[in-house]
Specification:
The structure holds two protein chains of two kinds. By secondary structure, chain A is of the alpha+beta class. Chain A has six helices and ten strands; from the N terminus they run E-H-E-E-H-E-E-H-E-E-H-H-E-H-E-E. In chain A, the strands form four sheets. Chain A has a four-stranded mixed β-sheet, covered by helices on one side. Chain A has a two-stranded antiparallel sheet with strand order 2-3. The radius of gyration of chain A is 16 Å and the shape is globular. Chain B is 7% helix and 25% strand. The chains are: A alpha+beta, B mainly beta. At the A-B interface, helix 1 and strand 2 of A face helix 1 of B.
Amino acid sequence: MAKKTNKRYAMVIDAKKCIDCKACVVACKAENQVPEGVFRNRINVERSGEYPKLRMNFEPEQCHHCEDPSCVRVCPTGASYQREDGIVLVDYDACIGCKYCMIACPYEARYHHPETHTVDKCTFCVHRVDKGEVPACVETCPSKVRVFGDLNEPTSPLHQLLSTRRYEVKNPQTGNGPQLYYLL
Amino acid sequence: VYTPPAQPPEGRFRLILGRKATITHATLTNLPWLNEHNKENDLWIHPGPAAKLNIRTGDLLDVSSTAGAVRIKARVTEEIRPDCVFMLHGFGKKSGGLKRVQNVGAADAVLLETAWDKVSGNAAMHETFVKVSRASAV
């Protein structure tokens, strides 16, 4: 557990800027040694219309690091836990690979690691964040779709975006309190 | 003097070949992190002509030009003009070193006819008109 903190990490996603280059997906794999065939983040693609009037929306998604995460609630061993700064993590030594959390997650953010046989997920690059850096996906994004920061820090760019722009969260009806904010 | 580009004759499609955000160069198709997003290339074709040719997404197609012929899977999509077909560059490689894409998908180089711009001398990559049909029994 992290020491007492009043930080609350979250991410703002300006999906309209996304160009589906998958740099975030590749950066995540490189940073976190994610094995082939599984992903910690993804880009959802939505197509509509008929030629020549077409629309395509790209929407990056990963673990929402929820306020009240259902994955943590269902974990029988306490392996899934939430730090005081809001980041949801898996204790790989305590995980028995039962996958309850994968079913409980409304965002399909978790995967079963084919080598360690534990469940794994986005960590918000906690090893970088603890050093004061931003997650790899945020750093690499060429069109600056992602903004990472502390909700309790009024001067942070994240806080300023959320206080000046309209936004939504995905599936708020789950009651999980997701912390990925999508700008409208 | 401007001369308009050649237009595809009846029953043929203009072959457009190219790249995408994750595959910007032919040899990138063999990189594990990028190959995951592009396992195999396919031939984009508009639903209109696809219906006439009885082609559905995933069907194996015979595509031919005067230069050669390839077999490739179909992708029926609204994302392309009805008179054109598109395939991603960098697949169907012959090199055994490019294990992930060796004989996977089809190579556009097999189909490309020789054409160049008469003023600049640049290769004209999109002046190949191909015939498309469902593959005959394999």
